[in-house]
């Protein structure tokens, strides 16, 4: 578990992860509203070169970023509005994954379709207002997690 005391700590973790990501990676971000999923994504995207603050992709569902905007292609995905895992098939995430990093908020909306090699990060609030991050680390992330 990693304790994230504030927004700056969450942004910093995203920035550290940016040094470790590769095309084909899937990072699944779970947790209640306001627990830090989008903040972590913003830290990662900023460290990859995005100049402006990344918007939440809640309404677009998929927000792609391509070089030269970022150093490696990233698809920031928010599945909150999906009602059925079958709806995700229309998004073409399998195709995007080939040459991009997939940052997926609300991955539980995929049901059993989440890739088994996804890095799963679950955010929870603590009583004092901080966040605790629990990681489920697949073999594809061994040696890359936790980022330093």
TrEMBL record:
By what name is this protein known? tRNA threonylcarbamoyladenosine biosynthesis protein TsaE
| GO annotation, cellular component aspect | cytoplasm
Ordered alphabetically, the record's keywords are: ATP-binding, Cytoplasm, Magnesium, Metal-binding, Nucleotide-binding, Transferase, tRNA processing
InterPro entries in the record, alphabetically? P-loop_NTPase, T6A_TsaE
Q: Which Pfam families match?
A: TsaE
Query: Where, per UniProt, does this protein localize?
Result: Cytoplasm
**What domain of life is recorded for the organism?**
Bacteria
A molecular function annotated in GO for this UniProt entry is: ATP binding
GO BP annotations, alphabetical order: tRNA threonylcarbamoyladenosine modification
Q: Give the UniProt family note.
A: Belongs to the TsaE family.
Species name for this entry? Answer: Sphingomonas cavernae
């Amino acid at each position: 578990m990693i304790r994230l005391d504030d927004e700056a700590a969450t942004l910093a973790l995203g920035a550290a992860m940016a040094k470790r990501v590769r095309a084909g990676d899937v990072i699944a971000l779970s947790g209640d509203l306001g627990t830090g999923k989008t903040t972590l994504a913003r830290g990662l995207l900023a460290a990859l070169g995005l100049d402006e603050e990344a918007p939440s992709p809640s309404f677009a569902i998929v927000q792609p970023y391509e070089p030269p905007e970022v150093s490696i292609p990233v698809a920031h995905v928010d599945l909150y509005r999906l009602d059925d895992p079958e709806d995700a098939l229309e998004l073409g995430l399998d195709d995007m994954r080939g040459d991009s990093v997939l940052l997926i908020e609300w991955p539980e909306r995929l049901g059993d379709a989440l890739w088994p090699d996804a890095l799963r990060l679950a955010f929870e609030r603590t009583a004092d207002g901080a966040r605790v991050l629990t990681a489920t680390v697949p073999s594809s992330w061994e040696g890359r997690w936790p980022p330093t």
